[in-house]
Amino acid sequence: MWSRRGHGWRIAALTTIGTAIVLPLVVFVLGPNMPPGKGTPVATSQVTDNTVLLVVMTPFTVFILVYLGYALTAFRAKPGEEGLDGAPLRGHFRSQVAWLASTTAAVLFLAIFGTTELLADNGAGGGAGPNPVTKPGGAPLPVQVIGQQWEFTYRYPTYGGVETATLVLPVGRKIAFHVTSLDAIHSFWAYELGVKADANPGVDNIAYVETKKISTFHVRCAELCGLWHGYMSDTGHVVSDADFASWIAARKRQFAPVMKYLPKYSSSYNPDPTFRAG
Amino acid sequence: MTEFAHPATDYGVVEEEPPALLERNLLIGSRLWASSLVFFFFAFLFAYFYLRSLNQHGLFQPKGVSPPQAWGAVVAVCLAASAVLLSWGAVDQRSERRGLWRLKGVGALALALVAVVAQVVAWSTLGFGPTDGGYASVYLGWTGLYTIFVVGSLYWLETCLALSFRYRDEPFGRAEVEPGDASGDDYREAPDIRNAVHLNTAELAALTFTWTTMAVIGVVTWVVLYLA
Amino acid sequence: MRRRRLVEFNLLTGVVLGIVGFYVGWWLGHLVKAPSLDYFDDTGQNDIALFVAYFTGVVGFLVGLGFANYPVQRMLGKPPSLREKETEGIGRYFGLCTDHKVVGIQYLIGIGAFIFIGGLNAMLIRFELLRPTHLAWNGNNYLTLVGLHGTMMMGMMTSGILGPFANYFVPLMIGARRMAFPRIEALTFWLLMAAGTILMTALAFGGFPTGWTGYAPLSVQANMGMDAYIAFFALVGLSMTLLGLNMLATVITMRAPGLAWGRLPIFVWGTVSTSVLMLLAAPVLISTLFMLALDRTAQTGFFNDQAGGSPYLYENLFWIFGHPEVYILALPGMGIVLELLPVFSRKPLWGYRLAVTGLLGITLLSFLVWQHHLFVSGINADLRPFYMLSTELISLPTGFIFVCALGTLWAGRIRLTVPMLFALAWVFNFLIGGLSGVFLSDVPSDVTTHGSFFSMAHFHYTIMGGLVFAFFGAVYYWLPKMTGFELDERLGKLHFWVMFLAFNSTFGPLLVIGFLGMPRRVVTYAGYLQGANEWVSVSAFVLGASMLVFVANLVWSQVFARVPAGANPWGSKSIEFQLPSPVPVHDFDRIPTFGPDPYPYGGIEEAGFDGTRPAVSPARPTP
Ligand code: HEM
Ligand SMILES: [Cu+2]
Ligand SMILES: [Cu+2]
Predict the structure, then answer these.
(1) How far is C527 from chain B (nearest CA, A)?
(2) Sign of dihedral through CA atoms C369, C371, C376, C382?
(3) Ligand 1 geometric centre to CA of C298 (Å)
(4) What is the atom index within ligand 1 of the atom nearest the CA of C547?
(5) Which residues of C are less than 8 Å from B62 in CB distance?
(6) Among B59, B140, B196, whose Cβ lies nearest the Cβ of C308?
(7) So what's the pLDDT on residue C90?
(8) What residues of chain A lie within 8 A of the CB of B57, using their CB?
(9) Is position C585 within any domain?
(10) DSSP code string of C74-109
(11) What CATH number is associated with residue A159?
(12) Do C239 and C352 reside in the same domain of the chain?
């Protein structure tokens, strides 16, 4: 039989080697492919975030898998040992402390790291409620996202409150999405932008993002909102300043006749409460 | 009184469990149930303060929505008095003054019934309806569920009283349980609890705890819904 | 000498009275009239009538089962008793029975049936997702399937281990002959059966669109099927509260001499911690559903933004219950796995105290994390760092469980029996579940993963990969004890390997699909995800088929082969294996006295309970 001390060293060695092999793969191969891609600064830092999480997990995962694999080979009952018991070990203080210390360190690191990322990125693209703690400098372009059964519409308060059915954003601008709903809870998920914010009736849920390159992105509703929830998707566009200016001007012209029927722009709206639907 | 520690019990026979065991079951069970009760109403407490702090569209408690103060006070006072009376009665029972306990028990039952009736009257004389904002909703939901629980606890009180009345002449006597009746299985020859009437004291202790918890919740309800 | 009753109370009378009660209530409910309720008549959507009908139906069912007899006797002043009069033989299983062993088996079969239905729903969901566009179910039916599947699973699996195994084995493990409240024990089971039936009736009332979370205001608008969801979950909540109460009272008051807290088998600790969560969290659910029912019937405005309420209130309350709920689904699995590993490693549990601390730590922390389900909802956004921290802190006690599991393997003599395979698979699956949870707990990362298939895969790794694998471990380990007949080992291994591989090949890719941007609960998805979804669906069908292997094994070995298991097929040192299989009606002749060590492996003879087995005299009939 191998000595128990030997088992420990072998597992440690295998874990180290395994980690040394896996870590570079995680950082250089998996990491850059993590969601949601590098469409915006917020999305990019989410990718970084995901990579860091993977890196922190790697040694623990490798250790547990190595240990499992090793234990199941080395500690299997050999033929003829059927009636026998293993060693009556009831714990090992030092390894328990080591485990506690390392997991605590990892957890605290993750919490602190997550918090700094969250604050540094002004909510990291997530809905931050009506009064976000951190706001980006400058004057972000406000765009209101209105969830309703079963589509999103978008209002541009700085352009006369015009309401459109497609989302078009100017490139290189900071955007403040003001997400609200007219009925059930929806969730505005602009995948490539790294934005997700729930749309609640009566709530102005704000999420910040900065557009970086001319592109299209997917919008889906990410909170179950009823019958056609599964069809509530949409494509958004990030376009050049000039294209944006002409697009919004065209929309203003197009919708001018109906503007007077729209409610005045506000942070939330009062729909008819007696409405009942499947 | 019963102990909560865990003395080695003699379970030497299959039949006739010593009543001490069920006594402990009941006492611990009542404490656990009381902690559940707290969480039932924690939900409403949370709802109250949450909606009040949000006050969506100023509709939490529009002008004119105010609870019937007089009836609310009647409910709270009756409940509190009922709980006090019951605890007092439990002391009597423990010191073998069972006639006195029955008197107080009936009193506690009557007071609680008055509280339930007062609550029903309060509902029917409300100046507001369920659609009148957050406060109105919380008021109706909270008092509604609470009343259901009060009625349920009253059932328990009634069973204790009924047992006590039925065996009033037998000082902790042996109840006439038919052999094999309560024990579950046909082939057993004795009841499953030795001296089942003896349990009255323990059951009363358990009930008192639950009922006091209910009364405390009732008073909190009153403070929050009527006074805050 | 039993007095014979005119009508025996059993499942049949229960069902008959249940149906009668339902229609009586339906009729009564239609008598309620108020101007604000006119649309009930206009639309034919009379929620009040349905709620009343469910209520009277459940009452009728319970009366028919005989649950009313004892309470009525007590009202007349009859002295208390512990148990209901019971017949012998197979009839015991079809009615109100207060023998904890019978209740355990009732649970196993009753819950098993409903979970099977839940599994079939999953197959139908995965069938639809073979195509990115509409294939078989329209939007409403698809959502109803998702809702039925999730709600059924979440409702039934909460008692999936405590119901069958804790009811059966906790009294044995602590040296008691019964649970603290045997009638309540029986009640928890029959409540669940009533609940499951009610949930199925949602189909007759148009289904419900909200998934298992029932978020308002969607659940306030929804049609009458929603009432089935509410009634189901409220009954499940009641059953859970009572189950938790009963378990705790049992363990606190009925431990046999010598069995101090520090000597309890770890499965009992798993049960205790789960029970605490059930006792305290399920009431919050019931109250929340009560509010929801009022919103739907009396037109209150708890969750109506236009009427002084807030949908946020529902989200908060639901998750104050909901997060403890997910640990109600995790802790019993941990208990089982830590119970099985020592037996098949032939070693004491490594780090007993650490494991107990882990279980209790999880119990405590799980009340402090609920807003991690609401990171992007806009609720209390400034509290997100706190919830991020508290959530990540839970990985510490969870880590204790892991390190104890791993430590137990160390230098053991591991035997890869079927229960052991399931226990080891738990370690692997729960590891992946935990790692994916780290992404969800990190706010920036959660912005992508929240509400996506990633989170769906995450909780299937913890619940299906964790709890359900532990459940099967327990079945293979304990069923021979419960029935007296062995389960076939070869079929068991086949079941295990197909299930393990198919499970990972179903939910592993789903993690990636979620990362790629597919939301959950959607009936259509982006075309480029079709290949991956087809793979997942096919794997899911194989996973479903593995359940058939299990059923085949069950039927074959218990009905046809019937190989007697003997008292101790695994060489376990746990007390229940010192009793005959199946365990006699009265469990022990003599209440055992326990020694200091619940896991006396490794040749320490003086440990364990006194002697080798508590006396059980053969003179008594064992039906
Ligand atoms: C045969 C194994 C299973 C398969 C193939 C499966 C598959 C699925 C699928 C496809 C969904 C719907 C995804 C969506 O459209 O959002 C789902 C949802 C869900 N499943 Fe399962 N599942 C299985 C077992 C389980 C088990 C054992 C549990 C718990 C005990 C469970 C709990 C849930 C829950 C809670 C939901 C969420 C429902 C909702 O969105 O409200 N599943 N499952
Ligand atoms: Cu939506
Ligand atoms: Cu949670």
Answers:
(1) 42
(2) negative
(3) 33
(4) 1
(5) 308
(6) B59
(7) 83
(8) 202, 270
(9) no
(10) HHTTPPP-SS--B--GGGGGGS----HHHHHHHHHH
(11) 2.60.40.420
(12) yes
SS3 C584: coil
CATH number at residue C206: 1.20.210.10
- Max Cα–Cα distance, chain B, nearest Å: 70
Say yes or no: A108 and A169 in one domain.
no
Full set of structural domains in chain B with CATH: 41-50+68-227 (1.20.120.80)
ipTM of the complex: 0.94
Phi/psi for A219 (5° steps) reads -120, 130
Backbone Cα Rg of chain A: 26
Contact C376 A275 (CB under 8 A): no
pLDDT band at B8, cuts 50/70/90?
very low
Return the residue of C nearest to A148 by Cα. Answer: C218
Nearest to A67 among C139, C347, C406 (CB): C406
**What's the Cα-to-Cα distance from B209 to each of B27, B85, B151, rounded to whole Å?**
8, 13, 16
Of B18-27, B198-207, C231-240, which gets the smallest average pLDDT? B18-27
Same domain as A261, residue A199: yes
CB contact under 8 A, A198 and C378: yes
Q: Which positions ≥6 away from A8 have C-beta within 8 Å? A: none
Q: Is residue A82 in a domain?
A: no
Query: For residues C266-277, b (16+ Cβ closer than 10 Å) or e, as one string?
Result: bbbbbbbbbbbb
pTM: 0.94
Contact A89, C378 (CB under 8 A): no
Using CB atoms, which chains have 3+ pairs under 8 A with B?
A: A, C
Around ligand 1, the residues with Cβ closer than 6 Å are C 119, 122, 125-126, 146-147, 149-150, 153-154, 157, 211-213, 456, 460, 463-464, 468, 506, 520-521, 540, 543-544
Q: Which of A150-159, B175-184, C357-366, C568-577 has the weakest average pLDDT? A: B175-184
**A270–B56 C-beta distance less than 8 A:** no
Residue C70 placed within a domain: yes
Helix (H) or strand (E) holding B75: helix B69-94
Residue A42 Cα, ligand 3 centroid: separation in angstroms? 25
Shortest Cα–Cα distance, A245 to chain C (Å): 30
**Overall number of domains in chain A:** 2
The token pair at C445 is: 């990362």
| Nearest residue in chain A measured CA to CA from B55 | A202
Structure-block tokens of residue C508: 């592993």
Q: Going by CA atoms, what residue is nearest to atom 22 of ligand 1?
A: C122
Is a pLDDT exceeding 90 seen at residue C590?
no
C75 shares its domain with C106:
no
Asked whether residue A214 carries a pLDDT value surpassing 50, the answer given is yes
Q: Which of C360, C368, C365, C374 is nearest to C320 (CA)?
A: C368
Instruction: Looking at the structure, tell me whether residues C134 and C41 fall in a common domain.
Output: no
Q: Cβ of A114 and C439 within 8 Å?
A: no
Given a contact cutoff of 8 angstroms between Cβ atoms, the answer to whether C175 and C256 are in contact is: yes
**Residues A146, A61 within the same domain:** no
Does B180 contact chain C (CB < 8 Å)?
yes
Q: Answer for the pair B47, C302: CB distance below 8 angstroms, yes or no.
A: yes
Q: Please, are residues C169 and C267 in contact by the beta-carbon 8 Å criterion?
A: yes
Chains that touch A (3 or more CB pairs under 8 A): B, C
What is the span of the domain harbouring residue C157?
A: 82-86+100-576
Nearest ligand to residue C513 Cα: 1
Question: How far does the CA of residue C278 sit from the closest CA of chain B (Å)?
Answer: 9
First CA to last CA distance, chain B: 39
The total number of residues shown for chain A amounts to 278
Domain presence at residue C608: no
Distance from CA of C276 to the nearest CA of A (A): 25
Q: Which domain holds residue A66?
A: 7-75+95-120
Amino acid identity for residue B25 in this structure: N
Q: pLDDT value at position A156?
A: 96
